[in-house]
Design brief:
Structural class: alpha+beta
Strand order of the largest sheet: 3-4-5-7-6-11-12-10-9-8
Number of strands: 13
Helix content: 25-40%
Radius of gyration: 19 Å
Oligomer: single chain
Bound molecules: zinc ion
Amino acid sequence: MKLPEKIVLKDFQIENLISNNDYASAADYLFNSQLNSWELMHKNYDALKNVQTKSFWFDGFKLKVQFNPERIKSTSAAVDEDSVNSRKCFLCVENLPEEQKGIIITDNFILLCNPYPIFSQHFTVCSLKHQPQLISNAFGEFLELTKLLSPKYCLVYNGPACGASAPDHLHFQAGTKNFIPIENDIQQLKNDFGQLIQEDEIITTSFIDDGLRKLILIESAEQEEIEKSFRTIYKAYERLSEEKYEPMMNLVCSYNDEFGWSVIIFLRNKHRPECFYKNDPDRILISPAAIDLGGVVVTPRAEDFVKIDQLLLQQIFKEVSLDKKTFSSLAKEVNSEFR
Ligand SMILES: [Zn+2]
């Protein structure tokens, strides 16, 4: 793959970090370098410092709402096939903004700063090849990338039909660790609402229904075991859903040296809630993806930020999450596969 020469950030410091395999520090270095040289990015990260948030407590977990006007394009992006086919792909390296620089991570991905942030440091990790957003072939790399960036960041995946704004170009997001509330809440959720489906010394897999969301947590320090578990879940989920590309899911993944990976899979029923398609004043512009489901719900419009309350959040989350019946069928099926 031949890259345009100017896109890769090159200097002594960053090359040194990369040769020591310290990608988290390299990402941090890239971030600060871009912040100083890219006006739009500087402006948007400055604005993020004063962003308004509201918090809501549910049974053992927290959801925050972030009023973030810069996310309007992403929240309302048209991702139907015609719209996607008729635009230039904004993740292909030849179409990136003039100011954008990146670093190559593993052989197949480039790490780029996201100039429209939700996290205090927000990156897009893009495949160097223009290929569809599908997790089944990229899950192993998703885990590897998480580990490489793990001291500072978590990784996020949005399925092609549930939140990815470029369903035609494989990409992940990386962001400041422990910013998404579910990273802190997950053990509590597992204790309070979890059903253990697989458990031995190497791996545990839990199905969790916290009343709003339906999710699966896979924990292990063995990459191969996680991949095996994920494959089993994916295949069973695929049989139960009738999606064209892949069963609807969003992922949040983190890694630490002591315990290994923690993969959270949000199971979905719908891309956007009904209120998204209504006319004003009934419209609420919320388009939940991994970060929202993980507990930072983004509202780009002030009127929605004001309007949103506990009850609306509950409705929206229930509506876009997998239904109870399919969730328990999936748990049963996966359970029998693991026996
Ligand atoms: Zn592309």
